[in-house]
Amino acid sequence: MAEYKVETKNLNLFYGEFQALNNINFIAKENTVSAFIGPSGCGKSTLLRVFNRMNDLIDNVKMDGKAFIDGKNIYKKNVVVDELRKNVGMVFQKPNPFPKSIFENVAYGLRVNGVHDNKYITHVVESSLKKAALWDEVKDKLKKSAFELSGGQQQRLCIARTLAVEPSIVLMDEPASALDPMSTAKIEDLIYELKKNYTIIIVTHNMQQAGRVSDYTAFFYLGELVEYDETKTIFTNPKDVKTQNYITGRFG
After folding, report:
1. Which H/E stretch holds residue 251?
2. Crossing angle between the packed helical segments 151-164 and 102-112, to the nearest 10 degrees
3. What is the chain's mean pLDDT, rounded?
4. pLDDT tens digits, residue range 122-166?
5. In which band, very low, low, confident or very high, does the pLDDT at 252 lie, cut at 50, 70 and 90?
6. Residue 59 sits in a domain of what CATH number?
7. Contact of 235 with 247, CB cutoff 8 Å
8. Structural domain that includes position 17
9. How many domains does the chain have?
């Protein structure tokens, strides 16, 4: 078994001539939450998208170095990207439910993957909505449009949709930035619960949020991973002056 759930070694990524990531060495242990913090445009979301190969969809991207999940290099030629993305789910900044019912939003990934057993689909939909702490709020309106839900509920629905295909890693790109404080608190509580069964990596602009939900925090600046440590160390005793200056609000 691999020592780390997620790992990069000497990873560089370019958009055309622009170097977005510079020699990134990162590790994440199983069943932990890692938070990426740093100013806008410093490479946080770019690194997040390395782990499910979403950068493949962007023209003119070049990458060297290595990225591993469960000890396997996910950029080898024989990797089936669709299989990788089933294992590495992604939740985006703005809730993006499909124009379907609540039930069909969660069932979508199963149906796309060729599952036809309705009893099994119903079981997975219920179980995923429970894991996303949404079941009690929607169990009587599963046939209604997902667009009838509030923003916070829609985001939890998107999390349920991600969990339905049974990933082991969940990537979250500022999952609460478009939500009100109460919905944000529910998402944060949910992240805390989910790490019992998943490895989570979250990009956040909210340092208080990073402090509340994560076990480890990585500080990025100008495409470099400046410092990565246990969250309490990053926030109370950072080793690098750039981290200290960012944490204390001197820039960013």
Report:
1. none
2. 20
3. 95
4. 999 999 999 999 999 999 999 999 999 999 999 999 999 999 999
5. low
6. 3.40.50.300
7. yes
8. 6-96+171-247
9. 1
C-alpha 46, offset from chain centre: 12
What's the CA gap between 121 and 98, in Å, rounded? 17
Q: Which residue stretches of the chain are H helix?
A: 44-50, 81-87, 102-112, 118-131, 135-138, 151-164, 181-194, 207-213, 231-236, 241-247
User: Cα(137)–Cα(81) distance, rounded to whole angstroms?
Assistant: 34
DSSP code, position 23: E
Q: Is 162 within the bounds of a domain?
A: no
Q: Strand 61-69 relative to strand 72-73: parallel, antiparallel, unpaired?
A: antiparallel
pLDDT (tens digit per residue) in 62-111: 999 999 999 999 999 999 999 999 999 999 999 999 999 999 999 999 99
Only one residue has tokens 């169990």, namely 139
Q: How far is CA 202 from the centre of its chain?
A: 5
Q: Are strands 224-230 and 216-221 parallel, antiparallel or unpaired?
A: antiparallel
In a domain, 56, yes or no: yes
- What amino acid occupies position 131? K
Extract the tokens encoding 227.
Answer: 């410092």
Q: What are phi and psi of 244, to 5 degrees?
A: -55, -45
Distance CA 202, CA 2 (A): 22
Gyration radius (Cα) of the chain, Å: 18
Measured in degrees and rounded to the nearest 5, phi and psi for residue 58 equal -100, 135
Tokens of 58: 């962007």
User: What are residue 38's phi and psi, to 5 degrees?
Assistant: 145, 165
Q: Output the pTM of the full model.
A: 0.94
**Residue 180 resides in a domain:** yes
The span from the CA of 76 to the CA of 68, in Å, is 10
Within-domain flag for 112: no
